[in-house]
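User: Predict the complex.
Assistant: Input components as received:
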Amino acid sequence: MTTKYKINELFETIQGEGAFTGQPSIFLRLQGCPVGCSWCDTKHTWEINLSDEVDQQVMINKTAESDHWAALTSEDILAIFNRQGFQAKHIVITGGEPCMVDLTPLCTVFEAQGYSCQIETSGTFEIQTTENCWVTVSPKVNMKGGYKILTSAMQRANEIKHPVATEQHIDDLKALLVDHAVTAKPIYLQPISQKERATQLAIKTCIENNWRLSIQVHKYIGIE
Ligand SMILES: C[S@@+](CC[C@H](N)C(=O)[O-])C[C@H]1O[C@@H](n2cnc3c(N)ncnc32)[C@H](O)[C@@H]1O
Ligand SMILES: Nc1nc2[nH]cc(C(=O)O)c2c(=O)[nH]1
Ligand code: SF4
Ligand SMILES: [Mg+2]
């Protein structure tokens, strides 16, 4: 049977985070995440209720965040890209937690059509995707769901992007890098929710450690 993915949002915008910041991108937001970060931007994606399934057109036409999702195959998704006239050639698969499902079939189809793929993941599930896919791991420590960061995810990561608001978050990241033997990867600090104190902490810590700053550009310029 052809795999169907539960899609909460599908839109074209500018990537606002990490190494691809500034890149026109098509975003696919998958439904479902059990990790439970208290400051999560996308709490509307957490629960998967079968009663929240909607038609693809209803999902695409959403004007506000909701927990509605549509079940789509890779081919359904490609057909929507074409119908919408999207020009971006980079696809960001996020959520929710996209790595709860095997993304290999999806990324294989996209890459065969000339797209590059990127996954945004918490690193708490096995990362199943193509070799060329860019993987952004944003490790989550001590969250409500109790999920643990996998060493395989830290090793697969092309970049590590850590949300920070307190010194504890920096200490958590340093411990993770040691525990999972991570060396020579780009490390981004991302201030949580544009808070002034978090941003100052991130700037200072980036300079001290030769890490990079990711400031969720889309929120500053008011795009999706
Ligand atoms: C919404 S998550 C979805 C993908 C995946 N579950 C994850 O956590 O990486 C996408 C990115 O947004 C970050 N994020 C979520 N809420 C945030 C917030 N309030 N401030 C800064 N970054 C946030 C996450 O850490 C992650 O890098
Ligand atoms: N513009 C834009 N860039 C993003 N980068 C990561 C996002 C996410 O929610 O995963 C995101 C998002 O929601 N919008
Ligand atoms: S892992 Fe990602 S989607 Fe899940 S709660 Fe945390 S930030 Fe939100
Ligand atoms: Mg977002």
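Residues 165 and 195 are 8 Å apart (CA to CA).
Let me know if you want any component modeled separately.
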